[in-house]
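Write out this protein's structure.
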Amino acid sequence: MRETKGFALMIVIVVMLLASFLASQLSMKVRTELLISHNVKARVVGSYLAEAGVNLAIFRVLGQKPLDLPAFGDEEEWLSFFEGFLYEFFLPLGMVTYSAGSETGKIDLNRSPQRLVELFLEYQLGEDKEEEISAIMDCLMDWRDSDDLHRINGAESEYYQSLDDPYIARNGLIEDASEFFLVKGTEALVGKFEAMDAFSVYNTAGKINFNSLSPAMLNFVTKNNNEMIEKYREAKKEFNGTLTSAVAIEILGEERFAELRPYMTFASGGNKYYYIIGTGQPGLEENAAPDEENPPKATGSQHNIIMQKNGSRYNIVAWQERYI
């Protein structure tokens, strides 16, 4: 009888363990499904918020004001648009940030001086990476030239066709900034920046316009110095968006300014291509009290576009979406 009771107890224990395991698995599955649903919703909301930022930037580039949007200030304030300035506002579903400016605020992969590209690579990789930078530059030159003779550290179509996923070199002017990451040696730069954020193929002047710096280019020019970045944004407001070389010296300091001066311009206009960056971060509230122990995660969506302005009309020539 005792043996029978002991056996029954074991069965009960096994059944309870099995039931507990199934319950925990069910709970985990439900939790996972809820997290997936939450993430999908956040991505959708973030995408729409980012698109809202893009459309508002388009309005400002075109010099127009949306109807029934009193929250953006009066007509004069709305039309005083600063290229490269980061604007932000809040909607019930989250925060929207956007910036826009001429493509002259970026490095042109076809026309900018070689030394300017090298300085940008030094900023990304470090000044001690001379060999790697030299190799990337040789490969970039080979990518653009029309012959099949590679430089000392360069690469032509023969190399690219030997890869597991083969392709051929452009052997001509680069047509899209994203081609940069197809060039041999650029693997070390993947994830550090997006090609469209820093590079262009529409900057016919070759030099970078200090008045139209994209966020990525502002980081490069200031070497990601937060104090300089803040000075740049404040100067945009103070001087109504138009900065001179004298102001640039005050912001960057004489040493950094002297290093970049041969590759910078301060002229505005003359280029009909604009970059626009719209970012949406769902769940962020304007007047929410900051929580230092559990700060809100800066997750969301970012839409980058290149638009061609034709008077009061425009064409989208490039569009990129990504999650941040």
